[in-house]
Design brief:
Layout lengths: L3 E13 L4 E10 L5 E11 L1 H18 L2 E8 L2 H8 L7 H14 L5 E6 L6 H11 L10 H5 L6 H7 L2 E7 L5 E8 L8 H17 L6 H8 L3 E4 L1
Parallel strand pairs: 1-4, 4-5
Antiparallel strand pairs: 1-2, 2-3, 6-7, 7-8
Helix pairs in contact: 1-3, 6-7
Length: 231
């Protein structure tokens, strides 16, 4: 895979219950086209700050595995962001080793790494994933080809194929299968179906990575013009 020249975005979060206590990390990595990779893991007993650094370390490690050249890190840990920028010294011995490991990974991005402190409400998806991991529901840690395959993205070719007619069956009360035909129809005056619908879905994926959560009603309203059901 060739190194990408545009910047990817990395949202990170780490936490522990008890500080120190049972801890976990999570991150959301977003490519420039809106593709998303999410990861969260349990860490054992440690502090919030240690977990925050391990979220950053694992996120940067995943980005390097994808040969990302430039990275924009967004975290609600002001301490970590300022330390990685060189604005604060790292005096805590428990953080020093993880900090140095993270700085070593930072040097591997030829286009550089930019660190930005964001408010927690701008980092809700990573926070949600982190809490799920602490609740015993982590997501797999993937590297290598499996990591590339796990990136969630919408394929224009798949959408173009979906614009045709597909048939499926569902059981009726009598137990006999009834055929259902689903057809996606382009609304009058709209852009061509695949490109227009792709934009909506990609926007939704990118928003999810930023922690935005549109309601089902909002999503349905945007998709409704493309959906017609014929039985």
């Amino acid at each position: 895979m060739l190194k990408t020249t545009t910047s990817w975005t990395l949202f990170t979060d780490g936490g522990s219950r008890g500080n120190p206590g049972p801890a976990a990390y999570a991150f959301v990595l977003i490519d420039p086209s809106g593709g998303i990779y999410q990861e969260s893991e349990c860490l054992g007993r440690m502090t919030n700050n240690q977990a925050e650094y391990l979220a950053l370390f694992n996120g940067m490690e995943a980005a390097l595995a994808l040969e990302v050249a430039s990275l924009h890190v967004k975290s609600d840990s002001e301490l970590m962001v300022r330390q990685m920028r060189g604005e604060y010294q790292v005096k805590n011995a428990d953080l020093k080793e993880i900090f140095l490991r993270a700085k070593s990974l930072q040097a591997g991005f030829p286009g550089g790494v930019r660190f930005e402190h964001v408010r927690r409400e701008k980092n809700t998806r990573s926070d949600e994933l982190c809490n799920q991991a602490m609740d015993g529901k982590p997501s797999p840690r993937l590297r290598g080809p499996e990591l590339r395959d796990a990136i969630i993205r919408v394929s224009p070719a798949a959408l173009a194929k979906a614009s045709g007619i597909e048939s499926s069956t569902e059981p009726t009360a009598s137990g006999k299968a009834k055929a259902i035909t689903t057809k996606a129809a382009k609304p009058e005056g709209s852009a061509p179906f695949p490109a227009a619908l792709l934009a909506i879905l990609q926007d939704g994926l990118a928003g999810a990575g930023r922690g935005e959560a549109p309601t089902a009603e909002q999503l349905a309203a945007r998709l409704a013009p493309w959906l017609t059901i014929k039985k």
